[in-house]
Design goal:
Elements lengths: L3 H22 L7 H7 L11 E9 L5 H11 L4 E5 H4 L3 H9 L3 E6 L10 H19 L5 E2 L8 H9 L3 E2 L4 E2 L9 H11 L5 E5 L10 H17 L3 E3 L9 H10 L1
Parallel strand pairs: 1-2, 1-7, 1-8, 2-3, 4-5, 6-7
Helix pairs in contact: 3-9, 6-7, 8-9
């Protein structure tokens, strides 16, 4: 028979790791659109009325990002690019060109990995390292953070806050990373969830997606922007997306 003290330690040995794992992954439930929109509208990128925030993940990529910069120039639109630190340091010229054209840079992480195991020290270092790289190369300090795959663990949330970043996910996406994505499908999926004051997630690279899928995103851009404008919505980066007015400013200050 196992002594009572032994049974207590045995139970603790099982419960403690389970509790740590639950605390680590629980915030990732915000990946679910229903949960996020209901409980965390600001995390969904809810912003000021009549404005849509246009965002791109996974760059900078010299094979595709310049094409997006040209397309956005032609449309007269600025956007927010959530960049990966390891590619920022490899392509500093492209980073500077993105900023020169009036776009905003934000942090997507150092690499595009899945955070299944708790690693708060690593999360903090990688987010801070990306912030430093973006600031050193572009001269601008980022203010937004979107974790890879939209999986916001407790460690990644704390890492963002420690680096002075505000986590933000999205309210509409085009599922443009898939092999069967087309310009029409990307536009239709975004339109299905697009709402006043929403944030759109797209990708300007195929490094962690189906090869060439960025072409569907690029092809969808003109119709997406035109559709927003026809609906009386302006399109721009997250930096222009904050709600306006005294009450909204007070709420935003409290949410930080």
């Amino acid at each position: 028979m196992v002594p009572r003290s032994g049974r207590v330690w045995w139970k603790a040995a099982l419960v403690l790791p389970a509790g740590i794992a639950a605390a680590h992954i629980a915030p990732a439930a915000t990946w679910l659109p229903g949960v996020r929109l209901l409980l965390c509208p600001r995390l969904s990128g809810a912003g000021r009325s009549r404005h849509i925030a246009l965002t791109f993940d996974d760059g900078p990529d010299p094979a595709s990002t310049p094409r997006f910069l040209d397309a956005l120039d032609a449309l007269g639109v600025r956007a927010t690019f959530f960049v990966l630190g390891e590619h920022v340091v490899r392509h500093p010229g492209l980073v500077r060109e993105t900023v020169r054209r009036g776009h905003e840079l934000a942090v997507h992480g150092w690499t595009h990995d899945r955070p299944w195991r708790p690693a708060p020290a690593r999360d903090a270092e990688e987010v801070a390292r990306t912030v430093r790289a973006v600031h050193d190369i572009s001269g601008h300090r980022p203010q937004w953070y979107r974790p890879p795959y939209g999986i916001l663990t407790s460690g990644r949330w704390l890492a963002a806050r420690r680096s002075g970043l505000r986590p933000v996910l999205w309210s509409a996406w085009g599922k443009d990373w898939t092999a069967d994505a087309t310009p029409a499908s990307v536009r239709a999926l975004v339109a299905a969830d697009l709402r006043d004051g929403g944030t759109v997630l797209l990708h300007d690279s195929d490094r962690v997606a189906a090869p060439g899928c960025w072409r569907s995103t690029l092809g969808a851009l003109p119709a997406l922007v035109e559709g927003c404008r026809e609906a009386g919505l302006t399109v721009g980066p997250l930096r222009d997306h904050e709600p306006t007015g005294p009450a909204a400013a007070s709420a935003a200050a409290g949410g930080r």
